[in-house]
Each structure stands twice: as structure tokens, then as C-alpha cells.
Amino acid sequence: MEHEFTTKQENELMLQYTDNQIPTWSLYCFDKQTPEICMAAVRNNGNTLKFVYEQTYEICLEAIKQNRDALQFVRDKDLFNKLKSEFNID
Fold it and tell me: Do 29 and 50 touch, CB atoms closer than 8 A?
């Protein structure tokens, strides 16, 4: 018999997976990217921002705090310029 997980259980398992230093590209494999999962991923590796579907200010900020080079993966031009200015990146 196959075990079916609830959404909460799935999220908890994915969060545990993300907290264990997942490879950068692994976030791309998640069908349901919650803000918590994305935040955990970028905290471990800022470049994971490249695979975040919904890039919020908070997630992008955390990614750039972890790795300033993650700025290149911010898709929204206004958000990119705002963060570039805040971090004084040329």
C-alpha cells in the first residue's frame, strides 16, 4: 500500500531536505515551492534563487545576504535595482 502525505507533511519533508544542504538545482524539482522552502534553500546557497519561482523581496534579500552574486538571478528589474542599490553593488 502506497503512503500518501498531507500537504503539511510534504512541506516538512521538503524543508528537512532543503536544510540538509541541497544542491543548487534541486529546488527546481519541487512542484510546490513554499516561501519557507525557498527561504531555507537560499539561506544555504544564495544561488538557489535562480530556481525560485516566486521571488519576493525577502527571499531575494536573504539570497544576496548569503551570496552577493545571487543578485544576477533576480528577475524583476525594479527589485534588482533596489537590491543593487541597498547592497551598493556596481
Answer: no
